[in-house]
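Write out the 3D structure for:
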Amino acid sequence: MKCLTCSFKERGVTIGLSRASLLTNTITLNKQDLKVRTRIGGNMESNSRLVQAGLLAVLLACYFHGTKAALAVTLTPTGQVSFKPGDQASFTCEMTDRTPGDILVWKKLNGGVWIEMATNSVLNPLFNNTGRYTYKTDMATFQILKYTMTIKIALEDAGPIRCMRGGNPALTKELSVTVLARPSTVKINNVTSTGSELTFNSTQETEVSCVASGFNNANLLTMRITIVGRGDITDQFTSTVEYYNFTKDGLHGRAGRRALTNNRYIFNGADDNKDLQCLAEYTDFTTLAGLVTVRVQGVPVITCTNSNRTTSVNQKGFKLTCPVISNPQLTSLVWVYGNERYPMGEPAKNGLSASYDITDSTKKHGEAVLTIESVAKEHFGEYKLQAANRLGDAVPEGKVTLWELGKTGGSTSGAGAMASFVLLTGLMTVLQAALH
């Protein structure tokens, strides 16, 4: 008898070969408590391949059916990993000390259901057809299966991935993929394009909302809403977060939507023509912003409520001005001096004429102008400005006091001077009539 001794995985194996006749041969294997015999028929001297096959059969029986070593499944990386859309992410799954017939299975939680991504070297067409997955064999032997999956990350890849020994869920490794997808859109009252306008009524409460959508991790997202030039008003809003499912190429994903809402916000005239801005700030990403221009409807706003101006007598073409904001457009604009009224657009009277000059393209901002053809003593005094549109009258009305240069605070009021001038003119008329 010819005896062979080998060492396999550091486990002692003794293989014996005996011959009962030229055509009958027996291969005996002893390994610990295991004894296996294989009979081979045929001429051993003339059929060495038959002998090799017999030896291989014994070795397989020895190692795979006699081994009590623990199977192992390894998935790398481990734990929770984060990526951005478009990143190339590689995952390696390895099964060692396997037995013949053991398969390596990849699974993904998809729409609440675990589905197979790949089995051994075959990638599920559902994933293969997306064009974002590549799959390759790193090692495939009797003892080891090792595969690497590379994914061009998209939002729907977020969630758990498992690598497992087929038929044995206990031999499973799992990792969780987070896709740091920033919001895809930011809308203010459902408007997305910068340069858009929103109109509000300054006398009514109105709903204002800023919505960021398309992200998938609310904990990394912060939002603010501001009126540019007036400051942050986020603390006056309520924040809500919700997630919704979407389907893409047969794969399920989850996207988030965060809203800042205020159902009782009131804009005023000072907000007109300001930019209302919503900022969605996401970790490791540039800030995404929504921006609209606010148009506030309300009664006119007159900003010269207590102004003072000075000039000298005989000044030609002197102008008193006062800014006025009105949306909708003005229906009435009147300067009042003493008992006289000077509506805009009417012919000059007593050397005074009123007009309204537009100061921006929106026709909502302008200046009320009262032009004095030639300043005289009787023009010094207090002027009032009244404005109205279809929503009502400006409150308070405007007030501009015109003083003679060098006599600020000491001149006779214009209304009194004008009244004295009118009285003196009347007396002279009476006197002249009496003399004639």
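Confidence is low (pLDDT under 50) at residues 1-13, 31-40, 61-69, 410-427.
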